[in-house]
Amino acid sequence: MKILVCISSVPDTTSKINFTADHSAFDKTGIQWVINPLDEFALSRAVQLQASAGAIVTVINVGDATTEPVIRKSLAIGANDAIRVNLEPKDSYQTAKEIAAVAKDGAYDLILCGKESLDYNGGSVPGMLAQLLDLPFVNAAVGLEINNGEATAIREIDGGKETISVKLPAVLAGQKGLVEEKDLIIPNMRGIMTARSKALNVVEASAVSPKVDAVSFESVPTRAAVKMVAADNLDELVRMLHEEAKVI
Amino acid sequence: MAVFIYAENINGHYKKAAFEAVSYAKSIADKSGETVTAITINPTDSSDALYKYGATNVINIKDEGLKNFSAKAYANAVNEVFDGKIIVFPHTTDASSVAPMLAIQKEFSLITNVVESPENMSPLTVKRNSFSGKGFMHAKAEGDGAIITVSQNSFGAKENAVSGTEEIKNLTIANEDTKVISHEQASTALDLKEAEIVVSAGRGMKGPENWGMIENLAGVLGAATACSKPVSDIGWRPHSEHVGQTGKAISPNLYVAVGISGAIQHLAGVNSSKTIVVINSDPEAPFFKSADYGVVGDAFQIIPALTEKIKAIQQ
Ligand SMILES: Cc1cc2nc3c(=O)[nH]c(=O)nc-3n(C[C@H](O)[C@H](O)[C@H](O)COP(=O)(O)OP(=O)(O)OC[C@H]3O[C@@H](n4cnc5c(N)ncnc54)[C@H](O)[C@@H]3O)c2cc1C
Ligand SMILES: Nc1ncnc2c1ncn2[C@@H]1O[C@H](COP(=O)(O)O)[C@@H](O)[C@H]1O
Questions:
Q1: CATH code for B197-314?
Q2: Residue ranges of the Electron transfer flavoprotein alpha/beta-subunit N-terminal domain (chain A) (predicted)?
């Protein structure tokens, strides 16, 4: 079984987000880049499936050369090889088209993504990819089992969960639950060493035009100063929530 | 040309997010002198609910084969009846899975997580969430066809009654890619992303056995419950309650954070709440800097007392 895991490279979750002086772009100065945390759950699940389902795991990233450390980390976590499509994508559509172009001829049984990239929060690439490849799509996956080439997934629904069987090949977008937090694979020394000799193939991008243009960015407004209420004066808190904030 | 909206229903009942999406579509339609057409699949609720928010036409797809949700089959169904240039989806789990597939089928621009009515109609330009609650993007659609998903609890559901008509569309869409094995859905629990009030608690609660007081407070407020990431990681609460950058992003009217320190990843998912109340025993807890109201003290005393006081004013 062949699994393709789509990895996006995003600012570390502790990053303060600033924009360039003209507000036209995200200011990358001083940013540490990490594997999109939701993709890490997908990747860890895929690596587990190497042993349990004989999976061969390829990671793919659409990005310029600066994403290579993040790709190497994916290899250190245990992916067999990697593909980088050499393009800094402008929108989800470009990303999905590039991944689809690679996946079309790759005979992957399963394509795993994160539910959402924590940079631009598109939540769009996986569904687009599924449609481009004409494959079934399961979003918000919180569980995945492969038995004799058959996939069973658990997907989160509003107020609950649904267990479904999925015809393969398919595209799944997941989050925590695909593996538990404690089962996220952290690269060890051996993983890091072997990652250096694993193949990271760079392919050139096709000339797909984006469909959405990020015109400008804006920071989140800061809140007014906090009003502190003494612990023995909860009547005052209730009064303020009722009369001032009008939320209760 | 009408502005379309996809009105999601759960087990036949419209979600609040569907009304928000209708309201959003109505705001666009009003700008351009158009009307709103809602598309919905197998509803049991009456279309009156959609007219109330401004949908003049409702296309009611009836298809037994679509009893079970599949993003692909639903996208195909919507594509059968959608013949406009713009369609609005709620950014719910299911609808936000359908929208990208439809975007490819129609070769339209897709702009997700939108929080405000368009600032410009041609080219369509909208404000959307980005960087997980740490920023906003103004995004412009290239080309003239667009799909928008509206972030829940941000634009709001605005009543705007019109007299409407319903058209029944019988379809038989193939739906064989996925098969439901089991389905667990609490019909009573408040949907965290739709809740007006959320009571959330962190590691300061010491253990899962202490959540009774959190649930009581939530009960009195008609609130949904949520938790910080470590609380769900150690299994005190289900993952579905985890809010923050790597969990759910929410924007209720009131967010009450109990025994949560206020790490940047937690704040990212909740800082678009309109009012934030923080209760923490540590006066230095970072969360106070991002709160509207703060109480320094022991949650084990404050929460039961606060619950009683809120009950008292409700009488
Ligand atoms: C990649 C990554 C992603 C992350 N994503 C998220 C996310 O999405 N959501 C999230 O929440 N976190 C996330 N985190 C974790 C985050 O960094 C914090 O560790 C976490 O939010 C802390 O949870 P907490 O506030 O419940 O616990 P703690 O930080 O341990 O805080 C407990 C608080 O309770 C207070 N307290 C103790 N006793 C009492 C009492 N009796 N009464 C009142 N208060 C009391 C303490 O003063 C303290 O402030 C992420 C971390 C990483 C590395
Ligand atoms: N540049 C990229 N390269 C590879 N995969 C990506 C890229 N961007 C997004 N993805 C995948 O698509 C998922 C959803 O991303 P998005 O639609 O951008 O929110 C991510 O979790 C990744 O799995």
A1: 3.40.50.1220
A2: 23-212
